[in-house]
């Protein structure tokens, strides 16, 4: 296969590991900056151009779409799909997972455990919104935030009201979420590939911090999931339509609660913490998809044509 990793930075750990694993398994692999791709749309002949050339020889792609370019990146993934190229994650699922509110609504509809979450348009609803999520302390999140950026813990109702009103005053969309005290600054990242958890780590926030993100100074260690945690992670990825996903879970008194479902989960933390080759799991999934696709191709039957005898 010829596999393309869609990434804006070929030097990132995750990008390098995917390329390394693909080549190790006997595939050709290239890194394509999806931000520099452009598409041609015409009847029966969709195309993608990159650096002045038509790239029509790609068999499979692994999207590593950053949150700041979700719209354009998903459009490029969609164009590859139109061209019948296999994708590690489908474009609608990438778009769906990046909208935190939509993600919460889908997971809620699927009956999966979540922290109580509120969403409103104006500051006039603040008091009822705070009551809805169980009062202070509570967590306030920017809808567009990533890696723990734009996430605030408000210890009191007064502090919560001030922060919420400030965000609304700046025109930001936010979620107000129940604070799970028993988590004690920890969460679990379960890495799901093709309906199976292939690795899991427990992340712990640094002292004085409630966000356990590794980008915020948190630490990670391998963890053995309970059956309920495993089933919740798999169900969350399925509900979102993601084949490759990082599912973040909070331990709570009422069972695992889903914080987020990430469509481009990083490999560095999970591979270092677990010692597992997660990148190869993604490549092997593409191999299975490619083999299944080849089996579905119609076979060409060569007919023997009798030559007419000359009279």
Automatic annotation (TrEMBL):
| Domain (ATP-grasp): residue spans on this chain | 104-287
One GO term describing the cellular component: cytoplasm
- Keywords of this entry: ATP-binding, Ligase, Magnesium, Manganese, Metal-binding, Nucleotide-binding, Protein biosynthesis, Ribonucleoprotein, Ribosomal protein
Needed cofactors, names only, are: Mn(2+); Mg(2+)
Q: Which Pfam families match?
A: RimK, Rimk_N
Which GO terms label this protein's molecular function in UniProt?
ATP binding; metal ion binding; ribosomal S6-glutamic acid ligase activity
Q: Name one GO biological process term.
A: SOS response
- What InterPro entries does UniProt report for this protein, alphabetically? ATP-grasp (IPR011761), ATP-grasp_RimK-type (IPR013651), ATP_grasp_subdomain_1 (IPR013815), Rimk_N (IPR041107), Rp_bS6_RimK/Lys_biosynth_LsyX (IPR004666)
Key word Nucleotide-binding present in the record?
A: yes
Which family would the database say this protein is a member of?
Answer: In the C-terminal section; belongs to the RimK family.
Q: Which PANTHER family match?
A: RIBOSOMAL PROTEIN BS6--L-GLUTAMATE LIGASE, RIBOSOMAL PROTEIN S6 MODIFICATION PROTEIN
Report what the protein is called. Probable alpha-L-glutamate ligase
Organism, by scientific name, is Sphingobacterium hungaricum
């Amino acid at each position: 296969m010829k596999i393309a990793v869609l990434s804006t930075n070929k030097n990132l750990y995750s990008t390098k590991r995917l390329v390394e694993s693909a080549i190790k398994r006997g595939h050709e692999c290239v890194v394509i900056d999806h931000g520099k791709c452009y598409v041609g749309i015409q009847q029966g002949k969709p195309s993608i151009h990159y650096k002045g050339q038509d790239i029509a020889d790609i068999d499979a792609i692994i999207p590593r779409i950053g949150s700041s370019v979700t719209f354009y990146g998903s459009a490029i993934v969609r164009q590859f799909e139109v061209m019948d190229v296999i994708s590690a994650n489908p474009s609608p699922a990438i778009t769906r997972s990046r909208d935190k509110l939509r993600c919460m609504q889908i997971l809620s509809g699927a009956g999966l455990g979540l922290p109580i979450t509120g969403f409103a348009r104006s500051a006039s609803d603040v008091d009822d919104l705070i009551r809805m999520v169980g009062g202070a302390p509570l967590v306030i999140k920017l809808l567009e935030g990533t890696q723990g950026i734009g996430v605030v813990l408000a210890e009191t109702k007064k502090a919560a009201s001030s922060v919420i009103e400030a965000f609304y005053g700046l025109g930001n969309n936010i979620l107000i979420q129940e604070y799970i005290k028993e988590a004690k600054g920890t969460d679990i990242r379960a890495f799901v590939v093709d309906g199976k958890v292939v690795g899991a780590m427990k992340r712990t926030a640094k002292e004085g911090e409630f966000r356990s993100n590794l980008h915020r100074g948190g630490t990670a260690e391998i963890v053995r999931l309970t059956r309920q945690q495993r089933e919740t992670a798999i169900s969350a990825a399925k509900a979102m339509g993601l084949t490759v996903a990082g599912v973040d879970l909070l331990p709570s008194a009422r069972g695992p609660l889903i914080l987020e479902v990430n469509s481009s989960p990083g490999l560095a933390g999970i591979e270092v913490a677990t010692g597992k080759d997660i990148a190869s799991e993604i490549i092997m999934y593409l191999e299975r998809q490619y083999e299944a696709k080849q089996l579905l191709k119609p076979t060409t039957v060569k007919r023997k044509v009798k030559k007419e005898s000359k009279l």
